Amino acid sequence: MIGTRMAGCAAACLAPGRPERSAARDAALECIAPVAGRAGWSIAILRAVAGPDADLLFPGGAVDLVEAWFDRIDRDMIEVARDLDEPRLSRRVRAVMLLRLERIAPDRAAFRRALAVLLVPGRGHVLARTLARSVDAIWEAAGDRAEGTAWYTKRATLAAIYVQVLLFWLARGDDMAAVAAFLDRRLARVARFGRMKQRLLSGRTA
To answer: COQ9 C-terminal domain spans which residues (predicted)?
Structure first.
C-alpha cells in the first residue's frame, strides 16, 4: 500500500524543483539528524539541538525540514559517487543506490520517521517531488546523460525499483547483503523486460 503510493507519487513528479540550500540550513540538519530517529522531526526538537532561532531557517515547519534533509542526502550521494570507477552505467546505478543506503544506514530510524512525516494525508505532493528528486540524483550520480523521452523513461523505471528497495532496506537494512541481493533481483527483472521488448520490436519491424 505504502510502496504503491510512494512509487506513484515519484512517477507523477519527474521534474521537481529543489528546496532552499544554505550552509546554515545544512548545519541545522546535521544537528537534528542524529537525534531525529529517537526524538522525531519537529521544530521543537530543532530548536533544542540547533538553537532557539533555528526554526527561522525552515518556515515550512517539519515538512520543510524533512524535505531539506532528503535533499542533503541526495547532494552527499552525488559528491561521494564521484569516486566510483565502473564503466557500465547499469552497474554505476547499482553502486550508487547501495552507496546511498550504506551511508545513511546509521540514520535509518531517522529516515523512517522522516518518511512518516511526508506520508501524512495532504503532503503527497511533497513526497512526490522528494522521491523524484532522489531518483534523478541517483541517475546524475551514475553519470547518466539521457535526454528527451529516455530521460523520463529511465526515471520512471528507477522510481519503482528505488521505492521497492527502500522499503526492503527500512525493514532489513541491518543485512546489506540481503539488500544488495534484493536490488539485483529488481534490476535483473527490468533487464529481462528490456530484452523481451527489444525482441518484440525487432519482430514487428522485420
So the answer is: 128-194
Mean pLDDT, all residues of the chain: 88
> How far apart are the C-alpha atoms of 74 and 78, rounded to whole Å?
6
Which three cell numbers, joined as nine digits, stand for 89? 552505467
What is the value of pTM for the model shown? 0.86
Query: Residues near 27 by Cβ (< 8 Å), separated by ≥ 6?
Result: 50
* Residue 191 confidence (pLDDT): 73
Query: What is d(CA 100, CA 88) in angstroms, rounded to the nearest whole number?
Result: 18
Judge whether 43 and 61 are in contact, CB under 8 Å. yes
Nearest-Å Rg of the Cα atoms of the chain is 18
**Cell numbers 545544512 correspond to what residue?**
26
* Superfamily classification of domain 2-205: Tetracycline Repressor, domain 2 (1.10.357.10)
Angle among Cα 165, 34, 123 to the nearest 5 degrees reads 55
- What span, in angstroms and rounded, lies between the C-alpha atoms of 66 and 13? 18
Length of the chain counted residue by residue: 206
